[in-house]
């Protein structure tokens, strides 16, 4: 059977976040008391006006094929969004709509990478970045952002990673898994480097744009350095900002040549995104924006709850993130210890496995994101559940020896 399958599959591995979420569901189905903090999606309902727009689209008969990469009305709304919120001017021909932000990223890499092309990926990274690069025939080049630098890479690190084969650098701010945000000042240092290397394109993953806390101000690379706009794909979507993960709508804007190439690829894979979801996304982008402010306030409160609770756990150091709905604590001081259940903690994967087995709390181990020894918690769940989970983690840590 292995000889029947494509050799391309040997380059990649299944998503660890999906695997951990699946294991937690299996244990819950067996009757275990499980708290899953591994999935990255808001726990709120999609805003009512968005749901109503989807129903209206069905009643209006918008149930047929659409243009391959998005209906004109949605593309126009996306152009308005970029102009209004990011100071970026795009024509509809420079916009593509896909089945989630993941497809936008995948299409861009598949449409541009050749064997030997390199893609710089700051770590910790979203688990899918390296595997998508590998599927497209490229080579991931991992640059580690250290905890003492807020998990952000420095201009010097970026400069040192660029070679004549570098085609893309992927920037994700605020970040999954750390919640770290690149301020305008941080981005300026990186864009100054990129301006010296005209062969390097920028793939800006801005999916957590609206989930920023305290006084952090979001910025995106093409906004900070207009000279990069003609070699930047700015990706975003409605999944995180409007609690629409299952609707599967992402979008991107960039040079028309790239957008046409991505549409060509999409025409031979999924074709158009769900027509109903497109009209729902249109309502999200053009309708009331109250939900964003309300959800941001809730997530900020939850962040503070989780950071405070984990900071009291022996052996855990938990930085305070600027955005998203994740924390990425260090467990360096727990490595080499043994849990109350008898598990020797040699890696962060050992930690995550023992934590799930002994306490029922599911987290994702740091090696999945390219930087150990850490783990990721998604705090996109209720205060009560988070309080319980943090208490279990504290008891687990206190029980190590």
What attributes characterize this protein structure?
401 residues; alpha/beta; Aspartate Aminotransferase, domain 1; Aspartate Aminotransferase, domain 2; 2 domains; 7-stranded mixed sheet; 3-stranded antiparallel sheet; 13 helices; 39% helix; 12% strand; aminotransferase
Task: Please tell me about this protein's structure.
This protein has 401 residues and is an alpha/beta fold. The chain has two domains: 7-45 and 291-398, Aspartate Aminotransferase, domain 1, CATH 3.90.1150; 64-286, Type I PLP-dependent aspartate aminotransferase-like (Major domain) (Aspartate Aminotransferase, domain 2, 3-Layer(aba) Sandwich), CATH 3.40.640.10. 39% of the residues lie in helices and 12% in strands. α2 crosses α10, α4 (101-112) packs across α9 (256-267) and α11 packs parallel to α13 (383-398).
């Amino acid at each position: 059977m292995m000889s029947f399958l494509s050799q391309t599959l040997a380059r990649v591995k299944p998503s660890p976040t999906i695997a951990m979420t699946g294991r937690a569901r299996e244990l819950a189905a067996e009757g275990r008391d499980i708290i899953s903090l591994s999935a990255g999606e808001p726990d709120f309902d999609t805003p009512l006006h968005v749901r109503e727009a989807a129903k209206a689209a069905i009643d209006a008969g918008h149930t047929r094929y659409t243009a391959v990469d998005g209906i004109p009305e949605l593309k126009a709304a996306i152009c308005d969004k970029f102009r209004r919120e990011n100071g970026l001017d795009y024509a509809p021909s420079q916009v593509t709509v896909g089945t989630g932000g993941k497809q936008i990223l995948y299409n861009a890499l598949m449409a541009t990478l050749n064997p030997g092309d390199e893609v710089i990926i700051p770590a910790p990274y979203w688990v899918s970045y390296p595997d998508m690069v590998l599927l497209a025939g490229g080579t991931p080049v991992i640059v580690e952002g250290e905890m003492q630098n807020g998990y952000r890479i420095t201009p010097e690190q970026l400069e040192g990673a660029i070679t004549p084969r570098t085609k893309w650098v992927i920037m994700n701010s605020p970040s999954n898994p750390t919640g770290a945000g690149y301020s305008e000042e941080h981005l300026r240092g990186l864009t100054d480097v990129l301006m010296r290397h005209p062969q390097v394109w920028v793939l800006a993953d801005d999916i957590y744009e609206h989930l920023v806390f305290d006084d952090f101000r979001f910025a995106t690379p093409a906004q900070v350095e207009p000279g990069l706009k003609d070699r930047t794909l700015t990706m975003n979507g409605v999944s995180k900002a409007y609690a629409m993960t299952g609707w599967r709508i992402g979008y991107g804007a960039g040079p028309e040549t790239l957008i046409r190439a991505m549409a060509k690829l999409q025409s031979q894979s999924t074709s158009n995104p769900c027509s109903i979801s497109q009209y729902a996304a249109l309502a999200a982008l053009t309708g009331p924006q109250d939900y964003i402010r309300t959800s941001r306030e809730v997530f900020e409160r939850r962040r503070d709850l989780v950071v405070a609770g984990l900071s009291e756990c022996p052996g855990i150091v938990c930085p305070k993130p600027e955005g998203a709905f994740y924390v990425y604590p260090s467990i360096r001081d727990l490595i080499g210890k043994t849990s109350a259940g008898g598990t020797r903690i040699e890696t962060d994967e050992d930690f995550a496995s023992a934590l799930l087995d002994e306490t029922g709390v599911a987290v994702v181990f740091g090696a999945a994101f390219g930087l150990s020894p850490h783990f990721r918690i998604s705090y996109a769940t209720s205060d009560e559940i988070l309080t319980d989970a943090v208490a279990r983690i504290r008891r687990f840590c206190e029980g190590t020896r």
